[in-house]
């Protein structure tokens, strides 16, 4: 049985449902958006972006992101350094990391995030001990930065998880692709750690996260694609494509 209720009534019904469990069926029949305030970030069209369109948005999100949470897994207890609590053996740890996309023009690695890996960092040590990695990024901070307002529902904004492994970028490629210049452009303070500099506070090296899979949450599922992207499509998207789309809160091209 479907029961249509005005938004205010719906909120009350939801409250009742939480406490009593009754009326659950009609509430579940209501699209979530009917309780949302009229919002500028909802797309005008009713159609859900395709996986491909979402991949283009995801590539833009990666390119515009300055940081992400890099998740690695501690080695099993027999391989764990004595400096590390034994209870974290085989446990994932996520730590924020500067990122950039400094290999955009390399067909093979265009969509692999660039990271300045410090030898002392937990993520680097775990990766060297064999851990695969994930990188989580979201549009939450940047949305607030661009619009100056908190979104009514951050859960309705894009986020992305990239899974794969870390790989050192060969020094010839670093020079040829201008990785340093690209990274410092995004992170001015990273000059303090540039690999091979005698002033560097910590020894580091350039790595790429070789993306094996990408998982995308475009926002609420009734208007957005949520799911795995195709790795081939992820890699093949061209710069012109992600330059031609806009994420929520960004000015349209003709407004810039
Ligand atoms: C643990 O260390 C041993 C000896 O160094 C090595 O052979 C083995 O591959 C390591 N195992 C893991 C899971 O890192
Ligand atoms: C890392 O992922 C690959 C699959 O991409 C898998 O074969 C390998 O066993 C994983 N490594 C570890 C240490 O779990």
Automatic annotation (TrEMBL):
- Record flagged with keyword Calcium: no
Coiled-coil stretches are none
State the UniProt keywords alphabetically: Signal
Q: Which Pfam families match?
A: CREG_beta-barrel (PF13883)
Task: Please tell me whether the keyword Cell inner membrane is annotated for this protein.
Answer: no
Give all residue intervals belonging to the CREG-like beta-barrel domain: 50-234
| InterPro entries in the cross-refs | CREG_beta-barrel, Split_barrel_FMN-bd
Where is the signal peptide, in residue numbers?
1-24
Classification via Gene3D superfamilies: Electron Transport, Fmn-binding Protein, Chain A
- What's the protein here called? CREG-like beta-barrel domain-containing protein
**Organism per entry:** Cladophialophora chaetospira
């Amino acid at each position: 049985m479907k029961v249509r209720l005005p938004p205010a009534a719906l909120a009350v019904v939801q409250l009742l449902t939480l406490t009593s469990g009754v009326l659950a069926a009609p509430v579940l029949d209501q699209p979530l958006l009917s309780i949302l305030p009229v919002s500028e970030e909802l797309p005008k069209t009713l159609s859900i972006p395709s996986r491909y369109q979402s991949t283009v948005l995801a590539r833009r999100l990666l390119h515009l992101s300055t940081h992400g949470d890099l998740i690695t897994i501690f080695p099993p207890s027999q391989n764990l350094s004595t400096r590390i609590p034994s209870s974290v053996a085989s446990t994932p740890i996520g730590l924020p990391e500067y990122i950039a996309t400094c290999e955009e023009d390399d067909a093979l690695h265009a969509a692999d995030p660039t990271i300045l890996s410090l030898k002392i960092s937990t993520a680097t040590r775990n990766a060297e001990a064999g851990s695969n990695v994930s990188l989580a990024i979201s549009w939450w901070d940047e949305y607030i930065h661009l619009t100056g307002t908190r979104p009514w529902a951050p859960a309705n904004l894009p986020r992305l998880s990239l899974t794969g492994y870390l790989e050192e970028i060969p020094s010839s490629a670093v020079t040829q692709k201008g990785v340093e210049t690209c990274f410092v452009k995004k992170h001015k303070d990273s000059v303090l750690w540039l690999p091979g500099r005698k002033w560097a506070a910590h020894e580091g090296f350039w790595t790429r996260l070789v993306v094996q899979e990408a998982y995308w949450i475009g926002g609420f599922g009734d208007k957005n694609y949520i799911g795995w992207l195709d790795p081939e499509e992820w890699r093949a998207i061209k710069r012109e494509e992600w330059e031609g789309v806009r994420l929520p809160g960004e000015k349209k091209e003709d407004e810039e």
